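Example 9 (inverse folding). The structure is encoded as follows.
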């Protein structure tokens, strides 16, 4: 499940941020915030909206913090935990 979720999240990042294939090359340890210039605070909102729409995962506004976007692995863990609820 986590690998499939990670792959799907990488695709979402690639699509939403218009990374032209760079997103699908991301690994669990790949840094996101601060490492991908396209991922700014406004883009985070778009990514979260895509996660909600594509993966049908509920994410409350008060759950969102910078740590969840530190690496692809951190984002995968966060979303996976909410997907199983």
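The amino acid assigned to each position is listed next.
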């Amino acid at each position: 499940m986590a690998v499939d979720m990670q792959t799907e999240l990488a695709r979402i990042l690639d699509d939403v941020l218009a990374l032209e294939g760079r997103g699908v090359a991301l690994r669990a340890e790949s840094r996101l915030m601060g490492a991908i210039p396209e991922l700014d605070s406004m883009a985070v909102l778009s990514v979260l909206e895509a996660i909600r729409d594509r993966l049908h995962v509920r994410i409350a506004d008060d759950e969102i913090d910078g740590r969840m976007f530190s690496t692809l692995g951190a984002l995968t863990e966060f979303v996976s935990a909410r997907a199983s609820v």
